[in-house]
Amino acid sequence: MKKTIFIVLTTVGTTFSCREGQKVDNNSQKDSINIHSTEIFLEDNSTPTVDISKYTLISDPYKDRRNDAKEILKVKRKWPLAMQSLNPLEFDSILSKNFTFKGSDRFYTRADYIKNRTTPDEWKITFVKYDNVTLQFFGDTGILSYVNHITNKNVNTGAIEYEHISWVDIYIIEEGRWKIGAAHAIDYRLEVPKK
Question: In the 8-state DSSP scheme, what is residue 122?
Answer without folding.
Answer: S
